[in-house]
């Protein structure tokens, strides 16, 4: 059994793949082999997410079309939750249980761009851990949003796909205004502090 500590340390920072790259806009392959190659990928994803100061990262964001994401994200009680999910399926509340929260959302693959997006205030994510064991995560607060955002990535959807044309245009303008601060291989090369 692989401990979380083994997976969150010792990774190599990889460049983050940007929106517009084909791997970002296509469904991923399911994880079928829970081996050293997967564990290396997960370690690298944790290292990359940390270097980019993100709260979640999908494999597509490091150019790999595999259904796995990592997260290190506060929940609704502001407790940090850390983990890895392979082959995630998100279940959202329906009917009277469905409460939408609108909040600014961003994506490491579109650095500098933020836009308001309404998502449910809690979500359940089921999948497998890095050893293939079944897991279930109950997300509240930012974690609920993160679980939905990262699972979307693995279906080939970026959060801009959920925005109106007008809001998406503003999102791209915000990103374009700051894009020069992010080198092509960011976060391998750190963000520039000024032009």
From TrEMBL:
It holds the Pfam family Pep_deformylase. Its EC number is 3.5.1.88. Keywords: Hydrolase, Metal-binding, Protein biosynthesis. InterPro entries: Peptide_deformylase (IPR023635), Peptide_deformylase_sf (IPR036821). SUPFAM superfamilies: Peptide deformylase. One of its GO terms (biological process) is translation. One of its GO terms (molecular function) is peptide deformylase activity. Belongs to the polypeptide deformylase family. Removes the formyl group from the N-terminal Met of newly synthesized proteins. NCBIfam families: pept_deformyl, PRK00150.1-3. PANTHER family: PEPTIDE DEFORMYLASE, PEPTIDE DEFORMYLASE, MITOCHONDRIAL. This is Peptide deformylase. It comes from bioreactor metagenome. The gene is def_38.
